[in-house]
Design brief:
Elements: H1 2-159, E1 162-167, E2 171-176, E3 188-194, E4 200-206, H2 212-222, H3 225-246
Antiparallel strand pairs: 1-2, 2-3, 3-4
Family: Belongs to the SPC25 family.
Subunit structure: Component of the NDC80 complex, which is composed of ndc80, cdca1, spbc24 and spbc25. The NDC80 complex interacts with mis12 and zwint.
Keywords: Cell cycle, Cell division, Centromere, Chromosome, Coiled coil, Kinetochore, Mitosis, Nucleus
């Protein structure tokens, strides 16, 4: 009997335990169903709100970036415009620099030509100065020679029966008389001038003397005009005696 009771109590206990588990599982299922329903609704609400927020955010960002892109497009256009202006300015500067280079080259050429002209003028002035000095020196020498001839003229006219005449081209003609004892008035003549070098030069001699070139050279070397005139007279006298002896 006791054994049967124990078996019955054991069976009842097991039955009660199975019912409690079933109830617990049922309650848990209902809880999860309600939880899921509640969570799903809240999640749907949150998702919808998040979707709206995202949409608003995207629209705001789109408007902001669209505005920024427009500003950047304007900035790019401005940069392009500035670049074009810079290119035009660079082109203008390059043209002006080329013109400036040409002007500088022309100025340098003109300066070089002016320098060459100044050098040429200076050279001509120097040559002219030298020529003037030479001319002045020649004029001085010629004047001294004329003065010397004038002094000799007075002396020789008195003592040697010499007549001196000024003829064309600034030449002096020397006429000796009283050489030929048979014909005292017979003239013996030589013509003297001063050449471009400032030297004495016998341009004619009548009658001709073989020694006239030698006497001229000696005159140039010594510049002793009195001795030259005396030697020419001696040569004429010797020629006269020779001609008289020949006749």
């Amino acid at each position: 009997m006791e054994v049967l009771e124990q078996v019955w109590y054991s069976a009842m206990s097991n039955a009660l335990a199975e019912d409690e588990v079933s109830l617990f599982e049922k309650d848990m299922k209902e809880f999860w169903i309600q939880f899921k329903m509640s969570y799903g609704t809240e999640q749907n609400n949150q998702t919808s709100a998040l979707r709206d927020l995202c949409k608003e955010t995207i629209e705001a960002l789109s408007e902001k970036w669209s505005k920024k892109l427009k500003e950047e497009d304007l900035m790019i256009d401005k940069i392009r415009e500035y670049n074009n202006e810079i290119l035009q300015q660079n082109k203008y500067i390059a043209e002006k620099e080329e013109q400036l280079t040409e002007i500088k080259a022309k100025i340098n050429q003109e300066e070089e030509e002016q320098k060459n002209l100044n050098d040429s003028i200076q050279k001509l002035k120097e040559e002219l100065r030298k020529k003037m000095e030479i001319k002045s020196s020649k004029n001085k020498a010629a004047k001294e020679k004329v003065e010397q001839v004038s002094k000799v003229k007075a002396l020789f006219e008195e003592h040697l029966a010499l007549e001196i005449r000024r003829i064309h081209d600034e030449q002096l003609q020397f006429i000796f008389r009283h050489i030929d004892h048979k014909d005292p008035d017979k003239p013996y003549i030589f013509t003297l001038s001063i050449n471009e070098q400032g030297d004495y030069e016998v341009t004619s001699c009548t009658p001709p003397l073989d020694c006239i070139a030698e006497l001229q050279l000696k005159l140039r070397e010594t510049n002793n005009f009195s001795a030259f005139v005396a030697n020419v007279r001696k040569a004429f006298t010797a020629l006269s005696y020779k001609q008289s002896a020949g006749n």
